[in-house]
What we know:
Blueprint: E1 4-8, H1 20-28, E2 31-34, H2 37-46, E3 52-55, H3 61-73, E4 78-81, H4 94-102, E5 106-110, H5 115-121, E6 131-135, H6 140-148, E7 156-160, H7 165-176, E8 181-186, E9 194-199, H8 203-208, E10 218-222, H9 230-243, H10 249-260, H11 264-280
Helix pairs in contact: 3-4, 6-7, 9-10, 9-11, 10-11
Amino acid sequence: MSGLLYVVATPIGNLADASPRAVEALREADLIACEDTRTSRTLLARHGIAARTVALHEHNERAMSARLVADLQAGRRVALITDAGTPGLSDPGALLVEAAHRAGIRVVPVPGPSAAVAAFSAAGFAATRVVFAGFLPAARAARRKALAALDRALPHIFYEAPHRIAETLADLAETFGAAREIVIARELTKKFEEIARMPLGETAAWLGAAPHREQGEFVLVLGPGEIVQADALAEGQRVLAALLEVLPASEAARIAAKLTGAPRRELYRFALDRKGTDRAR
């Protein structure tokens, strides 16, 4: 008989967040695939789990998935974990899960900690839908382009590294305006956890108020914006079309937004689409 693949969520900081079911699944496993076996060792040792571990990370996932599927087909139970949180969510694991499905292996999720869900639950933004955007591009030009394409009306959740947090918050303020609210969650569930909600225009001062605030792991929850009025957007697109005859897309979008009150990022997206259509002709 084929084995089982457990997809196990592990604590994002506080080891006490490991659920009894997660611990049970790890104890039942014949083999545990870890993003980093050294990181996972602390959690496993805390619960007296001595199963054999193998590394499965972004650099070896495809090759290791084939080996683990063979173990599963031989009847072994494999648990998949990452350094923190839920596998496959901005972490390795999706390729192994896909391979298991294709091989007819039963996949059993063991839900639990997620930095994205934890941050959103503490943000206080009422919404029936939310967009998880993960990590934004590292290059500033690509990051700004990605932000310009976001849906104005929905909350968005981002992960960000400490060395880019200041630049990303500045780009968010420039793209969405100083009044748009955001929640900055750093070091979730850890000793120095901070969760702060504020307008984007205040984020630079908040970061600069204490040196430690640019350290650790960040989750950003961008609050929902107002729904764009159709007449304002239509007027912005009309002005933009004229400006595009003499200006680059980014500059034309900036001026059209200032003149009409239409959101700059939507005008910029419209400008890129228009230029793409023109080139196709």
